[in-house]
Amino acid sequence: MPVAAQLCPCGSVSPKKVPKTFEQCCGCYINAFDTTPAPDALSLMRSRYTAYVLDNEAYLLATWASEHRPASVSSDEKLKWLDLTVKKYQRYDENSSTVEFVARYRQDGKGGRLHETSRFVRRAGRWYYLDGRERDPL
């Protein structure tokens, strides 16, 4: 099945609780970053999670604030992202937000969780990932 027709890895659902496809959700931002930026920090965070699932380094780097952007994003073939749960979305003003989330993964046959609060900034009408702070394990 083409990626566009598959359910979006971020797990987003419609207002009627119907799971969204990749194309209905994060795909429109990932596949058309130049013309269709994520409208808010929450959408950007979900699309960045999806980009990690799909190993889309170009999108991850393009949506990373330049002052914290690494030269590359290494992927681990043994790591499999399983699901995403958004705990809290906070918009402080029109140009700054945070998203607290838990992303579950499996690596080398063992389960794990990344619990992080990520900071986002909006510049020239686009949202960017600034940095994140890992939180205590759940």
TrEMBL record:
InterPro entries the record matches: NTF2-like_dom_sf (IPR032710), YchJ-like_M (IPR048469)
Domain YchJ-like middle NTF2-like residues, every copy: 41-132
Pfam families found in the cross-reference section: YchJ_M-like
Protein name: SEC-C motif-containing protein
Organism: Jezberella montanilacus
